[in-house]
């Protein structure tokens, strides 16, 4: 038994896509544009056919980089981007008002050097705007041929159902891995029920579920993991042991830790795809090398027994970030 390509918005894609954020922001130093473009070209050559970017990543840098890399190759990639989070200048916070959605899309089309985006997400829930109004505007953008489908990011099952009442929602993107399981409360099932593809971001635990554990003290000053509770102090001391044992499960199964984590994520349903990100070509190659490997049931059971909501120490986000998240959370 092996994993097969899976649909997003009616298009079959490799279930391992590419999260492009690391090429512009979040995990320390940004690679040169030349290196970033080389990585994106290598990704296409390896079989990655789903790229995920966002306006937030590098404040436009990531969309610009992806746009440059896709010149002459646009038809090779199912392209997703996001809008709604503002982190520079006078405008900060979340804005998914209809007028903002439309103006942000026009900027993204220009930066990406394309006339349409296959999947366009609201990056976060705007609690000041009814979800029905935001989705209604995105539906009009579909009618105009500027986007192919609507996505939501880090939103609840209830929000998904409200959105689906206005227009079909092609994808819900939420953090998901063996050590981040909030999606299991309600969103995974809601996606299956509504015909929505679940897109798992950070499916290798922001680098934790790999064979090269990121020691927090060695992270660069601007690395966002420094502010995440599970990478801090006593939490990390507890988690490090879990992660070391996880790597041993992978070794016994004949795969790397990252490959085990990705296979575990894909095993959670035929409507699930994953978008690991990296700025390093060896990791890019590793992540897709075993894309069609189906995790045996006994190995999945070992993972579940080792790493779960009860055993992992610390939340995935600090309090300030949690206030922007609509996804259901554990008590």
UniProtKB/TrEMBL annotation:
Question: One Gene Ontology cellular component annotation?
Answer: cytoplasm
Pfam families, per this entry?
Aldo_ket_red (PF00248)
InterPro entries according to UniProt: AKR (IPR020471), Aldo-Keto_reductase (IPR050791), NAD(P)_OxRdtase_dom_sf (IPR036812), NADP_OxRdtase_dom (IPR023210)
Ranges of residues in domain NADP-dependent oxidoreductase:
15-307
Q: Can you tell me which residues the record assigns to a coiled coil?
A: none
Q: Name one GO molecular function term.
A: oxidoreductase activity
Kindly state which keywords UniProt assigns to this record, in alphabetical order.
Oxidoreductase
Q: Does the keyword DNA-binding apply?
A: no
- Would I find Amino-acid biosynthesis among this entry's keywords? no
Q: What is this protein called?
A: Aldo/keto reductase
